[in-house]
Design goal:
about 170 residues; alpha/beta; GMP Synthetase, Chain A, domain 3; 2 domains; four-stranded mixed sheet; three-stranded mixed sheet; 5 helices; about 20% strand; Phenylacetate-CoA oxygenase subunit PaaJ
Amino acid sequence: MVTVGQLRPPTPTDAAVWDIAATVCDPEIPVLTIEDLGILRDAHLAESGQVQVTITPTYSGCPAMDAIRDDVTTALSGAGYDDVAVRLVLSPAWTTDWMSDDGKAKLEEYGIAPPTGKAAAGPVRVGLSVKCPQCSSLNTRELTRFGSTSCKALYVCSDCKEPFDYFKVH
């Protein structure tokens, strides 16, 4: 697995481009940046002078990708980079393993249970208890596999009775 820290370019110019792109927030979960989510995969200044950014959607057909592409372009244009190309790549597929620990903490603070465990390449995963982001109880249950977006499930806490989104592991 390649972590976000390993993706950040080592050269000062490319790192500056990365840092600007990394400020863009996810329109569906505005407390998370695209860097927090791990969907920012590359950002650099090409020899041609064009800024080239690569992003990977959390799932194929994610409706937020057009907004993210526009926001990345706007952020870089606002910093003086007029020639910006944002490329969408589907392979390798995004996984919650790419989310930063900081991003997972922000999810919980926002009231969304962060993904637990790691995405499995093997056959079957054993379901782990999902901790309630309100009261920290593990006495929770899934109400529906699909919540407010396809990447989240709707849960309810049996102790505090609060419903909450859970960012699914995938």
